[in-house]
Here is the input.
Amino acid sequence: NESRASIGTFGAWSPIIYMFDAIWGGVFGWNLYSPIIVRIVFACIGMLIYATLVRPNVRNSLFIWLFVISFSLYARYLSSQMADCYMVTLLIIYAGLYNRKEKKYKMAGRIVLVLLTLLRPYYVLLWLPVLDSSENEKYIIRDIIIAGGSLAGYFVISYYFTASYFTSLIKFDWLKLILESPSEGISNFFGILYEAAKVIGSSITSAFV
Here is the structure.
């Protein structure tokens, strides 16, 4: 919609997500085919990392297969200039890292989580299993600080370095309604969850039709 950020020339997409394009363009150059090529290559690398880390059996392979095909837009994004596929690929990489217990993989997983949280605030929820698995209180405090800093980073980037899309990515009308009329607001909130569940179920079902 031709909107521009307060700082710089970025639109609705965070500059963080385009660092993959910037790295590719700096190394291999950039042309009209580059957006498609870099997304497919990154997806292949993500799948390779997952397979190397997990060494999937039939159950693991079925899980990742269902994960990918349930988001049918992923295939379209890979063949277009949409950057959503980067986040899906990062999730696949994180799933592989989370499966490993070695310290170096846990640290790598935290780095991926920082990237995801900087891109979308709801990914901060993925820090909860990390906090639960921390064996030392000192590490829990460290992870809370990193998660909180990443979430704050998202809002700073969103406010200064990105522009509004056609509508806001996050709305709090449901919370306002809860505060004004608790019974109506709570009913509305669960209605939203129900509709979201229907959309997710429909997406998964359509993958088999």
